């Protein structure tokens, strides 16, 4: 597929507002993608690599702006690109606003005069090439390669490339839309209920369906209520969802759905070495748990960082031959964070522990916690000193002692356990790692649960987890089968979107940080889906709780993220998530979110969270209502 075709269709998706119409156009695009299907799916999600691969193209906003400036010609410098960014607010629009290198010039044609169009596969290859560049001079090589690509693109293509490079596609296509579109494009014909979802007629490049299409002032195409509903059934969508949960690879699932249909999807298995999305929890009380289930499984809530362990010991057999066969030999131990980043290297003692204790293939879920000399838990911030460390791992190992607590088992000795009950999974967990398994107590009265909670708090833990003992493991889901209970007021995990330079002694440091919530299109789906296209709205400014030393390190960290500057106020590229405490949430016209935090206080940087994991406006509103 030509990249220009992809860009035009992406533009139409962006202009379309109704969810079902978006699903149609995406389904239509997937059906036309042929051999580029996997790439198209990833591009729509703003990714070059599937989520379970730890590769990144490692091009920051500054380098991307420099490449655009270079492609825009000798009269344009990075400062000019930054000005336009401050003006237009979005890198795609900025890239499209320049007459880049060859757009209308000679470079659009190869030397023999043939039209040198760029294919989706060319863009993918080039971005992978950029990802692979390492070592001295890598910045320069990445810049030249990216510039070379921008140089060959038309404005709509340049928009998409710039957004892709920075992982912000802004098409309003979340993971849920892709899931539905895969079902619509490739499974709907298999259902008895009807024919495949028909892509709607084209109206000005965007979907119309049978309903009346109407362009609004901002150019979005709204499709009014129509008889034309999606053809995919709930069962189709569930089949896709299931395969996504085990493979964690949208591109791959799309291809399997197209080529092998439902039976192919049903055959997908967990693979030791391929991380799975973490199951998440909602806040809840003992009374909530006992109201919802007959009995609650009660566990300590450890105050550390989530780690998923993948290991297949070498003695157990040969390495996997087919990547869809549960591996039975020689993988890892590999450790993954809650966001599926590879954290094996920073945590060597966990690797050694697993190698030492485990003798069959496993996928375990758990938490690493920093502990003091007596083995008592230390605050969460301590574990983060170890978690993403690339240098001085050995020295830090001496400084911060870690414990690994395993609380779930997703795969054990050739058997996938996602669909079995928590109680069964816990039995397998104890079989796999008897002395690393968290204690799980079944309770059917509030008093027992409260006693466990008191003991957990006295021992220095964060609180307790309450889990439905009958529930399956649902990757990526923040449902009500796991409830977390901790006494402290919930903190919020907010994206840092701006800042202000300090005054006097602190004039060379950022002194205040503007923090924002995510406002996603499908914000209120309530199912914990990670959305790739967040809009961010401020809720307050954090200035307290930060030491001078910390401010200095934060200033170094945020300096390269400055997107624009006006007086002492700066806007940052949204990349860092702060955990923020507060006394109260108030309604307020001051900020775009409609809320303001009273006495916001810096608790720490959530190194384990990306922008897509930050709290949403919907969650903030729930907290505000519950005050
Ligand atoms: N026994 C346990 N079972 C499950 N999760 C646990 C347990 N102990 C600690 N945790 C941690 O608690 C988290 C569950 O809370 P949640 O899903 O809300 O994540 P979060 O947003 O990081 O919340 P928080 O900031 O409260 O930890 C898990 O991701 C895990 O890291």
Kindly, what is the distance between the CA atoms of the first and last residues, rounded to a whole number of angstroms?
53 Å
> What share of residues are in beta strands?
15-25%
Number of strands: 23
Shape: globular
Helix content: 25-40%
Sheet having the most strands = 7 strands, antiparallel
Oligomer: single chain
**In the CATH scheme, what's the topology name of the largest domain?**
D-amino Acid Aminotransferase, Chain A, domain 1
Number of domains: 4
Just name the CATH architecture of the largest domain: 2-Layer Sandwich
Features of this protein?
DNA repair, 21% strand, 35% helix, binds adenosine-5'-triphosphate, 627 residues, 5-stranded mixed beta sheet, DNA_ligase_ATP-dep, alpha+beta, single chain, D-amino Acid Aminotransferase, Chain A, domain 1, DNA ligase i, domain 1, DNA ligase
Protein topology:
Blueprint: H1 3-15, H2 19-32, H3 37-44, H4 61-71, H5 78-88, H6 91-96, H7 120-132, H8 138-150, H9 155-166, H10 175-187, E1 202-203, E2 206-207, E3 213-215, E4 221-223, H11 234-247, H12 250-266, E5 280-283, H13 286-292, E6 296-301, E7 305-312, E8 331-336, H14 348-357, E9 362-371, H15 380-387, H16 393-399, E10 401-412, E11 415-416, H17 422-432, E12 441-443, H18 446-458, E13 463-467, E14 478-485, E15 492-501, E16 510-519, E17 535-542, H19 548-558, E18 562-566, E19 569-572, E20 577-581, E21 584-587, E22 595-598, E23 601-605, H20 617-626
Parallel strand pairs: 5-14
Antiparallel strand pairs: 1-2, 3-4, 6-12, 6-13, 7-8, 7-9, 9-10, 10-11, 13-14, 15-16, 15-19, 15-20, 16-17, 18-19, 20-23, 21-22
Helix pairs in contact: 1-2, 1-9, 2-10, 3-12, 4-5, 4-8, 7-8, 10-11, 10-12, 11-12
The protein binds adenosine-5'-triphosphate.
Residues 278, 280-281, 299-302, 306, 338, 367, 407, 438, 465, 484 line the site of adenosine-5'-triphosphate (ATP).
GO molecular function: ATP binding; DNA binding; DNA ligase (ATP) activity; metal ion binding
Protein name: DNA ligase
Keywords: ATP-binding, Cell cycle, Cell division, DNA damage, DNA recombination, DNA repair, DNA replication, Ligase, Magnesium, Metal-binding, Nucleotide-binding
